[in-house]
Design brief:
alpha+beta, v583 fold, Enterococcus faecalis V583 fold, 3 domains, five-stranded mixed sheet, 39% helix
């Protein structure tokens, strides 16, 4: 209870789990209550949990996996072109967010992003032509996560797109992400209007080359240092990235002024674009997280979650100890705030690789650092703190670099333990954007969502089966 008491100036706090009846009664008597979102262990995992506990290897395996994750030091080193950095990527290979998906099962925003990418690549003459060719299987779809990459929302990465290259300053790992387009009618939300394609072409022609030139002139940028500082300034690393984008612009600004090998007007346009896009750093924060989660993968008997991702149809996770296997459930709806006249009827189910941020202790796990985020995703500032506190129940460590001022600089909860999720019933908390369910719509809102328990149940049962 130390941390909760500190938060409340050492006044007594009553911890209440389960039904709200007891907590409500105590609060009516004037006492402070800390509510825990606890449920009984999932009945379908009793045998698997008993086997994992009796085997005895899971604790050491989890310690190995989480220490590998925390040892990574992500540095942005360059911007390349997708076809050049991904081995075997053909002119018709498209990466996408979430678990594997085929066109026939793809959600509206996923289809919209694939259509837009086909138009951008010159593989189709119009949206109808693109949809027909996709139906015929004329593009190859593959998850970003299978290639050391991540993509927000639909996450579609096509061969001509610039991609950021993130390397481990303390090891040999590398990860990738596309560059952020901004909010609204953008490809990652499934939009494919002419202005969407024109923006992608500008990113291809100007933003990518200029940023890459500036990085090569300046040298690597320590992303972990920027993210850590941004948490002190009100960011969460997922849906609030204003501070970290500002910090990044300070880091790269000098190289844009006098280091990039590009015309002055292009360097100015790049500066203005980053300055006007509070979400610019989202993709880079995601790639930094991917670097850490990949480092934690492949530890036998470990129940550490290395991937949480969604494609608008399925929500999927991977565990360190179960290799490349995906454990999926239907993508849940988002409890959101909607833009303009949009409502929940216009919304697609949850989508995107951006839950990699929650997987490494950011996003919904760091909402206590970003109380202003509730103006974008909904909820309350007090609720944001409660969500973060609940996540300590299902994680293995507190991040030594990512700290939360509101919690007396306690490290963010990091390293989701699937075994703890099914034991407690406490589900990973996610904040997210919301895409329109009709292809071409774009962004319709933002909100909050919980990971489905079924993924973790299946993962733990599969992990138990790996034990010899």
């Amino acid at each position: 209870m130390t941390h909760l008491n500190d938060l409340l100036d050492n006044e007594p706090v009553v911890a209440a789990a389960g039904t709200d009846m007891l907590a409500d009664s105590i609060e009516q008597q004037g006492a402070a209550v800390a509510r825990a979102d606890w449920r009984p262990p999932h009945p379908d995992t009793a045998a698997a949990l008993a086997r994992l506990t009796a085997d005895g290897r899971m604790v050491d395996a989890n310690n190995t996996a989480i220490q590998r994750l925390l040892a990574v030091r992500p540095h942005l080193v360059d911007v390349g072109v997708a076809r050049d950095v991904f081995p075997g990527m053909s002119d018709r290979t498209f990466f996408h967010a979430g678990p594997p998906i085929e066109w026939e099962r793809a959600s509206g925003p996923m289809r919209g992003a694939i259509i837009g990418a086909m138009l951008y690549e010159g593989l189709a003459t119009d949206p109808e032509d693109a949809a027909l060719k996709a139906t015929r299987g004329e593009v190859e779809l593959s998850p970003c996560h299978h290639h050391g990459a991540v993509g927000p929302m639909a996450g579609v990465t096509s061969p001509s797109m610039p991609v950021a290259v993130i390397e481990d300053g303390a090891g040999e790992g590398v990860s990738y992400s596309t560059l952020n387009e901004g909010l609204g009618k953008v490809l990652r939300y499934g939009a494919f209007a002419p202005e969407v394609i024109e923006r992608l072409q500008w990113i291809d022609r100007v933003l990518g080359p200029v940023l890459g030139s500036a990085l090569r002139s300046r040298g690597p940028i320590d992303l972990q240092a920027l993210i850590a500082q941004a948490l002190q300034m009100g960011d969460d690393g997922h849906n609030r990235n204003r501070a970290v984008t500002s910090l990044f612009l300070r880091e790269i600004g000098g190289a844009l002024v006098d280091g990039a090998d590009a015309p002055t007007d292009q360097r100015l346009d790049v500066f203005k674009f980053i300055d006007g896009n509070d979400h610019f750093m989202l993709n880079l924060v995601m790639a930094a997280g991917k670097l850490g989660s990949d480092a934690a993968a492949g530890v036998p008997a470990s129940s550490l979650v290395t991937v949480m991702a969604r494609n608008g149809t399925d929500f999927g996770i991977r565990l360190s100890g179960t290799g490349d296997a995906w454990f999926t459930a239907p993508a849940p709806p988002v409890d959101g705030l909607y833009l303009g006249s949009f409502t929940e009827e216009d919304a697609s189910p949850d989508i995107g690789d951006s839950t990699i941020t929650e997987t490494v202790g950011l996003g919904g796990f760091a909402m206590a650092a970003a109380p202003a985020i509730v103006g974008f995703v909904g909820g309350t500032a007090a609720g944001a703190v409660r969500r973060t506190l609940a996540m300590y129940e299902i994680t293995l460590e507190e991040h030594p670099a990512y700290q939360i001022p509101m919690l007396e600089f306690r490290g963010t909860p990091v390293g989701i333990d699937a075994a703890r999720v099914v034991r407690t019933g406490v589900l990973p908390q996610i904040n997210t954007g919301v895409a329109g369910k009709v292809p071409g719509t774009g962004m319709v809102g933002a909100g909050l969502v919980e990971a489905p328990i079924e993924c973790f149940v299946d993962g733990i049962n599969a992990l138990a089966e790996t034990l010899q």
